[in-house]
Specification:
Layout: E1 3-6, E2 14-21, E3 28-35, E4 43-48, H1 62-70, E5 73-78, H2 90-104, E6 116-121, H3 123-137, E7 145-149, H4 160-164, H5 173-182, E8 207-212, H6 218-230, E9 235-240, H7 259-274
Parallel strand pairs: 4-5, 4-6, 6-7, 7-8, 8-9
Antiparallel strand pairs: 1-2, 2-3, 3-5
Helix pairs in contact: 1-7, 2-3
């Protein structure tokens, strides 16, 4: 077990330690982030690191997990199996097992009445969005909200923001990631695999979606926010101004005035608006 204190521009210090979550069907490595100002009302967040399904790690997700903790949450960042060795739906089932294990053991870090959230960036945002659907369909555990930062939601890769970034259906990291995760195009029809294709979005937990003007995933994020609102889901959506170095900013240590610090403010407000009174 290792531990480290992150000294940041904001006064809230965050400490972390590595753990293993006794999930089924497979145990999952995790990193637990705890803010210094922990109390019984602190939110509890399952975080899924970024990447493109075939890359990413607990280390690369540290900046976002730290921001979530600074926003007022105890955060467990989970290291999920990567493609192409592990593909949909096996990866998602492993992550859902982690969610069940974390919810059952939540009193280790917060009170049993603490609001529970899922969060993720890029591929982790895809998995978080899919978990919100699975929780609805499998009737629990209850979610207070879903926090999606530049989520990968559309395997078609045909949006203007992706074309503007000189990316598209072939020859880019997102295309390679989708191919490795799905294995075959027919799997993209499943709503858990590509949430933007879902025909039934009603009944999902409130959503916070954060992107940026120069984010290649900006347009699919916007489309998903609109579809959620049309389905009656409460949505908060923010677009950071360019240049933001999005999505590369996810791996950078948060600095005052950076897009990650702005995201921290949005998450704090989301916790306030969605936590049970």
């Amino acid at each position: 077990m290792s531990a480290q204190t992150a000294t940041l521009d904001r006064p809230i210090a965050v400490t972390w330690r590595d753990e293993v979550i006794a999930a089924k069907p497979v145990p999952l490595a995790a990193r637990v982030f705890i803010p210094a100002e922990l109390n019984r009302n602190t939110a509890f967040v399952m975080h899924l690191h970024g990447g493109t399904f075939n890359e990413g790690s607990l280390a690369s997700g540290e900046a976002v997990a730290t921001i979530l903790a600074r926003a007022g949450a105890a955060v467990v960042s989970v290291d999920y199996p990567l493609a192409p060795m592990h593909r949909f739906p096996d990866v998602l089932e492993a992550v859902f097992g982690g969610l069940l294990a974390l919810y059952k053991a939540r009193s280790r870090w917060v009170s049993k009445s603490a609001p529970f959230y899922v969060a993720g960036e890029e591929a982790g945002g895809n998995l978080a969005a899919a978990l919100a659907m699975m929780v609805r369909d499998r009737q629990g555990p209850p979610l207070a909200g879903q926090i999606l930062l530049s989520p990968m939601l559309d395997s078609c890769l045909g949006t203007y923001s992706l074309r503007e970034a000189d990316a598209g259906p072939v020859g880019c990291r997102w295309a390679d990631g989708w191919h490795d995760y799905l294995g075959s195009p027919d799997k993209a029809a499943h709503p858990y695999a590509a949430p933007l294709n879902a025909s039934r979005l009603a009944g999902l937990a409130p959503a916070l979606l954060i992107t940026a003007e120069d984010d290649p995933l900006r347009d699919e994020c916007a489309s998903y926010a609109c579809r959620l609102q049309e389905a009656g889901v409460a949505v908060s959506r923010y677009v950071q101004t360019a240049p933001s170095h999005w999505p590369g900013a996810y791996a950078e240590a948060p600095k005052e005035g950076s897009c990650l610090c702005l995201a921290c403010d949005h998450v704090t407000e989301f916790f306030k608006s969605t936590a049970p009174s």
